[in-house]
């Protein structure tokens, strides 16, 4: 059974792997419009429930999927 918020995680993972700019645009577009979902996303990953915590995770995720891995 999927936990609430896992769909957001999967979407962000897909965007990160396929197109890092798309991930950035997704975050920018949703940061203020959908703060509750972003906070749930950060909380789901154990990074706390703040936008800065979510951004720290995104930076780490992007670093893991750098161009050398493709």
TrEMBL record:
<protein>
    <submittedName>
        <fullName>Uncharacterized protein</fullName>
    </submittedName>
</protein>
